[in-house]
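User
New here, explain this?
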Amino acid sequence: MCQHFVEFGPAKMLKPTRLLLLGAPGSGKGTISKRLLKKSPQLHYISSGDVLRSQIANRTEIGLKAEKYLKNGALVPDPVMVRLITHQLQTHNWMDHDASWLLDGFPRTSNQADQLNDVLDKYNSNLTLVVELDVDQKIILHRIESRYVHLPSGRIYSLDYNPPNVPFKDDVTGEPLVKREDDNAEVFQKRLDKYNEKIGDLREFYQELGVWRVVSGNTSDIIYPQVEKLVTG
């Protein structure tokens, strides 16, 4: 496969770049993704969390199914997620071999990864890089207790390190921020436990494909430069 570099602002990126960001819930995937997108505006983006929240907010059939699992701290079943994400990629024509995109938070299991890989392989659009964000999970639980969100946009704020300009108001719209029902330590620990059960097989799957990398740190300022270096080569 022929690969070449194009300028994205001051940095260069391998094109096509088909990147998957993985990490425990609350590890900062959304924050890292936003910084990458700001640096590389031609990089398309799809967040499994954003897609799910949109479906839940719109009270769609798939959203209602997902909501039941999330409220109990469980992962959404593989068939539901694979169908949802595949549909998003196809809708935006991101299956094109020349398209560059970033997946945030999906797949989360080796079964999902295998199914997704089968779909991408048919379009000759396999992932070129998988990056795992390694963050201390005790710190993640502390973050969750101080996290608030603007539901319509998915913008996330932390009362500790990323507070809104006006307390409990979205910086862009001024609308109220809310605390998600699953953003508490007890429920979130269940999500972390589920992630820890699945990540070993998922890591092995992408290691065998030769695209797996890990970056470690407890803040986005530590993690992001490492991710950017991997993406830009």
Summary: The longest helix spans residues 185-209.
